[in-house]
């Protein structure tokens, strides 16, 4: 003990004598169980008092247990109150002392990165005790410093380990209410991503009942989850509560509810909601109309659906193949092929190009009537219009042959689609299995079910239902029971939408590896890539700047039989624009028509923005005029992009001309529109006009944000900006 006595003596005059001696004593006991004590151990205890904290004095692996244990010791030395009642605990047990960890985290609130490392270390140790208060403490540290991605991970852990009590602790005021709302909004977002409707409703209800209002985006996400789960009654209740607590619905809110009602066949309720939203000053957009047309078409109300298309055209809304296809599908579903063809001609005359889905719909209508030979006549039309028949095309024809009892022809198509590098889906197999069962060929049906498993496609509940019914039809009850038991043993699998949503979320967070892992899992469970999933990947990878990887994916996409669409092209065009390759972006844009693709308002807007911001206004004007000539209405983002470029070039007169056009014809200017013009006027020292715009936006009910104030007051010293904002509010008010 001589060494320890000397060490104790050396710190006798220091502030925390008693605490340091105890720490040395217990460190010695701890170390004696592990290894001989060395001078470095003593040096560490005095490190807090050393001005030079170089690694020469103390060097240790920053991922080791010793590192974190010693970090806690140092926290106690720096702030003795951190020890609390934990002074006599061995360092090996620090991770299991929840109260100690909470005090340490609170003592290092200014070091969020270190706090997160410490939390992760403790959670990964055996014996760690899950505590609602500990989770809330680390979330408090992370959120107040803006570490939202890290906070997202912690909230995911809360959901994963099933600690719903965290919600109550946050609501009860354990942390600042602003922090609580941000964390609870994160929790809602994660619950919606996991499609956990029950937990979404629990968090939502507790928040609003305690005055912590979720943002409208999360409310919309909850409505989406409820729609996907078919909980229409719950969706109505959430909408009612939003109104009760003053959460202003957006067009997304209404469109999600409308989609819910239409999916449930409650079209009249959807139409009533449209009337309500208009009374509240929220007017239908293209999505609104498309949802209603889809709902009406599925209910067989074709005249009303067609009337809405006329209404869209009269209002100048963009009418696309997505508008017409549901009505065409409705006609085909009901055998009204003449009406479907007439509508398709009208669609093309209006500038909306038929998609592969349009052609597949016609093929479906013919096959449903048993006219498979006539359906085949659409095959060359598809190729002529630069489309490649996809899995839906083949599934439609396979279904047609199976309806005719021609399972052999269906099997030949199965081999052909593989030859074309298409992957058969569970629908493909289910259709053929159903055809075989109806012919009484149960053994062939079983073999095909086994084959789909061998090819990485999991039979779903419909597969087994078909097999059970097929067995029952021929009286083979033992085999029916065998399939039924197998179905129960396997359980239900996540659907395509669930996987796609998760993949999109992982890509948004930048985790490409995880997204690919999910895609591989998706494929193994019977969900081959489709156009949507490819576009999700292409868009996500492009946003991360990995253009080479995006092009490799495009090659695979084409190899799998899919043709890049306007969403795919727009994603890649945007990526090139963001890295300054404007010429390459323009080449891709001009390539789209040759691929049978029509650029959308988004495509034009990204091009206009990129050229305008660089001062290449002649090209920006060209694209702006071209889109209007093609009947593609510019939106507020399009106008803002053009006006921003004009203001940067100090051409305010032209910017004001577009501003006037917006106010007269729409779209309605937003806060970014006003901020752009305010900034342009300030650059030209037009203070009075900037002030006029500021007042105008307030009168229009548009709330300025920090960017608006920064533009308005950018020439002022920062010490005077707060007073200037207050002064502005007084004189404008």
TrEMBL record:
SUPFAM superfamilies noted in UniProt: HCP-like
Residue stretches of each PPR repeat: 215-249, 250-284, 285-319, 320-354, 355-389, 390-424, 425-459, 460-494, 495-529, 530-564, 565-599, 600-634, 635-669, 670-704
Gene3D superfamilies linked to this entry: Tetratricopeptide repeat domain (1.25.40.10)
Keyword tags: Repeat
Protein name: Pentatricopeptide repeat-containing protein
